[in-house]
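In this section we walk through a basic example: taking a raw amino acid sequence and producing a predicted 3D structure, encoded as discrete structure tokens. The instruction is simple. Fold the sequence below.
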Amino acid sequence: MLKEKAGETAGKIWSALNETEGLTARQIKKATKLVDKDLFLGLGWLLREDKISTQEVEGELFVKLV
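The resulting token sequence is shown next.
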């Protein structure tokens, strides 16, 4: 069940990032209405699949599609 949730959450995040140059974690949370633990579950899935890149910009996590 957790694996299924991770995939669904990753899809929401991917959709939010699609057609952008990237978003901060805060912007992704706002766009997807995810709580922290679900956000990071989905980000982990996307990182494992090499679908996103992350970096820290001014102390905040910045995410973009690869």
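Looking at the output, two observations stand out. The mean pLDDT is 96. Helices lie at 2-17, 25-32, 36-48. In the next section we compare this with other chains.
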